[in-house]
Amino acid sequence: IKSSNDPDFNGVVSDGNGGFYVYTNWEDRPGSMSRIQVSGLTDSGYGNITQEGMIDFSGVGGTWVNCFGTVSPWNTPMSAEELYFDDTSDWFNPDYEYFSNPQSLATYLGYPTDGSGDWPNPYRYGYIVEIGNAADAAVANVTVNKLETMGRFSHENSVVMPDDRTVFLSDDGTGVVFFKFVADVAGDMSAGTLYAAQITQAAGVDDPAEAALGIEWIELASMGEADIEAAIASFDGTFADGNYITDEQVCDWAESKSGTDLSCDEDATVDANPFSDDRVAYLESRKAAVALGATGEFRKMEGVNINYNLASTWWNGGAADGDQAYMYMAMSSFDKTMSDDEGAIQLNGDNGKCGVVYRMKLMRNAAGEVDVMTMVPAIVGGPYYADRSVNECNVNNISNPDNLLIMDDGRVLIGEDTGNHENNVVWVFDDPAI
Question: Name one Pfam family in it (predicted).
Fold first, then answer.
């Protein structure tokens, strides 16, 4: 029996009888999710906690490092697969330092771990996983669906906007991308358009507490779930097959998509799409985004969230400018690719190891969708003390912000996941700017 010490997200869904179900992500390889029921409300609180069991992910071939999440407006927990394989080729590389991870997945699937037979398809992992029928009294009746339409990368979190179409998605790692998905039909995530952010930093400002980041959304592709799943299936096979999308194919796709000869290859021609569809955008989303000009420089992008009640009030009131119509995003760190004096993001990284939380004002764009156009620093961690062996980030400020929750009064709960504070804490942040 496998046990886990790595819980992350807790999602709450009403049971319809005065109690609620708590869905908990577990960050393992393969990943998992459990459900408990909390009921029996009295004057002194809830009296009953029932441990119901685990969600069955076998129908989707298992999951991978179930990280943070949210609950959708239609009450489905949205669990994020945090896939730390920047290069899919490493999935088939026995010398890769984390090769034991796909081996663990092979064991789960009943495949040989020595590469002598079938091997897990890397393109079946790295998505947002939607948990349907979440309020059913029987945990066995819960359904599972991977939302491949939202792209494949190191998902930290997704959050659905009050238009029931727009979803913002964070990508954890180093040199990563901010994504957006817009569904064709409200409440139906099975088809839509995937976008990636191109960032422009405020000119002449490198202070992380002052430097606003402007956003322009680059359209990557539009495909439906069935077509993406068919593309994924084409990569099923053995370890010896080693079948994956190469960097050259990503570049060729991007040149075909943009109609431009790009710097990702050395020839002086616009190459043709090596595939009959836009699978590259959905299966190698980060590389595809960067090839088309999106900014792949974010560092340790973590939770992204709204208060749905506040955002809905704003949206249903005509989406006019108003208090509390904001989204927040945490960067656990802003060192390395965010402070290396290269590219679009060039922050002063003196306190980069302590992190930052950004605020984004919600707006209605020309297409009538919820959107964000600017990332404004709301709170920056630090100072950072390099000469210390403990509490390297000032204990009177945040360090490595991770999960975020916005309360009904607009205050932000910031959960730390840090080695730079001796004790990790949850901060209550009353944003002075709003």
Answer: PhoX
Reported pTM: 0.97
Give the span between the Cα atoms of 177 and 66, in whole angstroms: 19
**In-domain check, residue 98:** no
Q: CA separation (Å) from 299 to 295, 337, 398, 400, 432?
A: 11, 6, 17, 11, 25
Number of domains in the chain: 1
Residues 112-136 pLDDT 10s: 999 999 999 999 999 999 999 999 9
Give residue 20's identity as a one-letter amino acid code. F
Closest CA to 122 of 107, 106, 110: 106
Assigned token pair, 131: 């948990």
Nearest to 156 by CA among 63, 32, 70: 70
Is the residue at 154 inside a domain? no
* Structural domain boundaries enclosing 365: 163-226+297-434
3-state secondary structure string across 96-160: CCCCHHHHHHHHHHCCCCCCCCEECCHHHCCCEEEEECCCCCCHHHCEEEEEHHHCCCEEEEEEE
Measured CA to CA, the distance from residue 318 to residue 364 in angstroms comes to: 9
